[in-house]
Protein: LacI family transcriptional regulator
Amino acid sequence: MATTIIDVAKEANVSPSTVSRVIANNPRISERTKQKVREVMDRLDYHPNFQARNLAAKSTKTIGVIMASSSVLAFQNPFFPEVLRGICSAAHASKYGMYLSTGETEEEIFDEVVSMTQGRRVDGIILLYSKVKDRTMDYLQSIDFPFVVVGRPFENEASVTYVDNDNTAIAAEVVDYLLSLGHQDIAFVGGDINYVVSRDRLAGYQQALETAGIPFQQAYYLQDSTVNEDGASAIDALFHLPNRPTALIAHDDLTAYEIISILERKEINVPTDISIISFNNHVLSQHLRPPLTSVDIQIYDLGLEATECLLNKMDDPKLPATHRIIGAKIITRESCARRGID
Amino acid sequence: MATTIIDVAKEANVSPSTVSRVIANNPRISERTKQKVREVMDRLDYHPNFQARNLAAKSTKTIGVIMASSSVLAFQNPFFPEVLRGICSAAHASKYGMYLSTGETEEEIFDEVVSMTQGRRVDGIILLYSKVKDRTMDYLQSIDFPFVVVGRPFENEASVTYVDNDNTAIAAEVVDYLLSLGHQDIAFVGGDINYVVSRDRLAGYQQALETAGIPFQQAYYLQDSTVNEDGASAIDALFHLPNRPTALIAHDDLTAYEIISILERKEINVPTDISIISFNNHVLSQHLRPPLTSVDIQIYDLGLEATECLLNKMDDPKLPATHRIIGAKIITRESCARRGID
DNA sequence: CTGAAAGCGCTTACAG
DNA sequence: CTGAAAGCGCTTACAG
Structure:
């Protein structure tokens, strides 16, 4: 059996309470006693049992991280490691541990969250996604468990703590950038519309067009799932339009890569024939040919600040909901060009 | 306060022991009682407290996943999300949870592992890397804690359970492939030599050359850190050699991308002027221009099988160490070509 | 500044 | 098939 607090207490000729207080570095214990107890802890190679400590103290010092369902996509998405890195870094700084969800379906994830929270496996939860009508989020709110969302909540925005980019504004900015290059016929390949981020970016796209007096065309709007499933024909349709687009906004770099590959096979040149810009600024985007113009949404900071918000919330559950907006900026590379004269 | 086993027991008119047995689905409890108790659990929305259960049962049903130090690299490495996906999937199938290390330095990671194991925070550990002279691994072995390594251990290979590719053989195969294309002057950009994987691949490279009767040239061997720090000049040196290489093997796709970008700036064409092949077969490798020939090492399977091995080990700690070798294969794309006539 | 005691919420021999 | 009791290894009022 591993050595326990009792062993240490006996060896140091103090009570277990005292050992416990030394572990917690309680100021009411004399330095002399602390030294003595610490020496014994070292000598016996004592390490407190987490379960016992957590049970007694009613806290776990761990954060639950919930990924979106369909793990293949969640993991493949370059967003994931980067946001995790941010979370990791903030958690580590506050000596918190990270517990990762493993559920694969929405149902499983929901059940996992219920048992994580009810079973007190974690002290707080970070939701790595924001979905329309999300049971999990509703549930967390209903039991008043400390949580924070990376992304803007679909409902109850004011009462939920979240960290997000201003996706609507960024998407509008992207459109403006293309407009400034002389483009008018701008296609938009958006993400899954069940995620709020996809809706926000679409809204930004539409608003910017409207501001510029350019009507929104349904045919210019695709979902990235279409491209990933049968990319060639979706892109084909786009390029057989009477006014074929001269610019295209992709929901993320992966989609952009996919599209560029398809275009290449059709001998459509980027950026000469069509300008392409996307979101997320993947590490590899600079290595693509042409190097991809992409929006840096500061994923690491999203994770970092989400964790800080959560830590605050856990510290003081009565704190009002906070919202942090992380800046983003267009990283100009070579996939966008001034519109040629038709 | 959350509802406890006592609440359920009272409500169902049984003892807490019985409720506990119903939770564990103990066959000695009658179906009738089970039904009754389950109904009450549902009605009261009861969820067992993990800490209490773990403390009493002396098991945590969670796996600790330890990443290599220097988290920036660990996270950025595309290896990470993919191996995690494999682990996740196997853990989930066995209803295990995942606890992630957050340490940033080797020292911190070591301390984390000590407290994870001594503090019984996890039942088993997966080491996501294998380093030369690794304290952490030595420690795990010394306390006889269930663990498995993704990668080949540097020492005590026979007594440590691990999952790995046969990196030596694969590297040799890569060389043979290039030889078959007529290349003789083959450069090798390897990984950090503190990792066993880097050593194995280098060994495979050297062996294959030797078998082919081609002397190993120190000038043809670089470490990827050199390329990442001051890529241009390292590559420059390579191309100013009297016999400049006509082929190059890169430790991973990221390094290959980096090199290709540098070459492009020098107007050295891949594959006309130099053939490039690398390891890991990143999702995006097919989208690079030219599409990158790369070795698929089946990262997902590495994670999956490592977890299975660990689960077995935890089930029966007396089991002898097992070693699983995961297959790998060269995915031929367009970055390698037959050697031109000089 | 320190200790004795109760309690955190479970599981599991032991007994019947 | 079920229950009473001890115990898992801590923390934390309470008391002095």
